[in-house]
Write the structure tokens for this entry.
Amino acid sequence: MRIAVVSDIHGNWFALRSVLDDAKRQGAQEIWCLGDVVGYGPQSWECYQELIGLEAGAQIPVTAWIAGNHDWGLAGKIPLEFPYFRDEAAWVLRRIRELTPPEALEEMCRFLGERPTFQEASRPGIWLAHGWVAHTTGSSEERANVVNELSYIWDREDNTWKAKRTWQALGRPQIILVGHTHQTMLWHRQNGNHWASLLGPRQSNLSPPPGWLEGCPDCGNGPCQSRKDWGQSIILPNGPVLINPGSVGQPRDGCPAAAYAILDLDEDGNQVTFRRVGYNVEATLNNFARLARTADGGMDMHAIQTYIPRLREALKKGEGVNE
């Protein structure tokens, strides 16, 4: 079984289209979405429609779809205020609510609000989660150590992260798929609580993928390909392993190319392939202006001078605005 794992699309419809086209060329049979379809980017409704269309059409089916914090924020299940969201993130979600036609907004919010933030895959031993231990301020290794013991999910009743599921309750997972950080990760739990990265070192002077029109601010040549193992299948060791496919719509590793992962599941062994895909960045950047439209057809000049430039710059540089 070959699965395309996507996460953190964030309203970037042009990036999503390129990823779906690439996934089809790679022979993906299913799509698993790890959340945050909306937010940050200018075309959240279009991204939602694109994935819904895949579910309804005769294309690659979306067989697993969980919610991210931006999805739940838009649906009204978590507050839009700090510390849940910072200024730009909250502003975009409010603009989506104001600009989307009421019936369409109701449909999108209902669907996203019904998505869980944690799900066991149909295959035993695989967990899907959006944010992993999102409340910690520790180092990456400390966060991984908590994943070793517990899976944190959002408690709807008192709005807190709680350890609802334990290894003992669900069985020890072999593969944990997560999003939220917008950075590609592949970690393997070794002895005790030690997690080691299986990704190779960053490199430079590599060629961009076909169709890429923008120079990469990280290596100057084209989107990274800044790691030697982009596009190469990595055989997964006996678990547990933690995989983050990176972000489709707003990568935060210094490379603006859309990121996703191909997961090959086989009785004889599992493999993951991290993909970076070029897309029409300029088209997405030009669409940001739609978020600043006012009800009378004018433009919100404060947004044009503050939020929009920061969002555009983050996209171009492959950097985060905030969570």
User: Anything to note?
Assistant: The longest strand covers residues 160-166. Residues 2-317 form a domain with the Purple Acid Phosphatase; chain A, domain 2 fold (CATH 3.60.21.10).
